[in-house]
Amino acid sequence: MDKKYDINDLINMMAALRNPNGGCPWDLEQNFATIAPYTIEEAYEVADAIDRGHMDDLREELGDLLLQPIYHAQMAHEQNLFSIHDVIHDITDKMISRHPHVFGDSDAADAEAVNRIWDERKKAENKGGDSALGGVTLGLPALLRAEKLQKKAAKTGFEWPSTEDVYRKIDEEIQEFKDALTTNDPKKITDELGDILLNVVNLARMNGVNPEEALRQGNNKFERRFKGMEADYKEKNKDLSDASLDEMMQSWHDQKEKERKKTA
To answer: Would the pTM of this model clear 0.85, i.e. be above it?
Structure first.
């Protein structure tokens, strides 16, 4: 029977890769900064597998993601900072502390109550410092970070009364962006475009939509339809780049109609 590897085998394998005596030359050259991009990439590949509903790919991508904390912890262990066992202890301890309704005497009737408990525990831990906006990681994707900052601000009462107010604010910001374009000032133009995006994130949040997920789905839809256009033109022995814009737009609408019929 083939051996079934467990977490300890993964830990030992990573240690062997980083062993100066006989380890992998590439792995030995790495540090926290060089591995960090891979950590982020693997998280997105997990999300992609989930979006596609492909469980075999999800199993593989979860393995790739699991390797990342093992990798970082091995490097930390080499510097006598902490080990993977410390990491496991800390996260287990934190999750038990933040779920007193499961591991303690508190009650939580619904998800909203759980969120309140979570926020109270985080506040008690002083993870965010003195600011209500504390604890939002700078390294998050911009849309996700904007949503988290706005959620924290909203808890203080800093929130538009309705989405209609946000619509008006977006219209106002679009006009300010148009005005900025007349200045030919790149900094001002970028600043005003940022305000538009920030308010679009606010609109998404107030309507219960995850803006990061919405944009990811939008990207996937754009890619799917564009590739469909290319395939249609290839069947006609034509190149999409030779088509006029009007022809491209008609082909784009054809793709939308095909998708509508599939889902009807």
So the answer is: no
Boundaries of every domain in the chain = 7-82, 128-209, 213-263
3-state helix, strand, coil in the chain (%, to 5): 75, 0, 25
What's the CA gap between 116 and 264, in Å, rounded?
41
Instruction: Tell me the CATH number for domain 7-82.
Output: 1.10.287.1080
Query: Does the fold of domain 128-209 match that of domain 7-82?
Result: yes
CA 133/CA 152 separation, integer angstroms: 6
* Contacts of 9 by beta carbon, 8 Å cutoff, 6+ apart: none
Structure confidence by residue, pLDDT tens digits, 42-58: 998 998 899 889 999 99
Give the distance from CA 94 to its chain's centroid: 22
**CA-to-CA distance for 214 and 259, rounded, in angstroms?**
18
What amino acid is encoded at 87 in this protein? V
Q: How far apart are CA 261 and CA 254, in angstroms?
A: 11
DSSP string, 92-156: HHHHHHT-HHHHSS----SHHHHHHHHHHHHHHHTTTTTSTTTT--TTS-HHHHHHHHHHHHHTT
CATH of domain 128-209: 1.10.287.1080
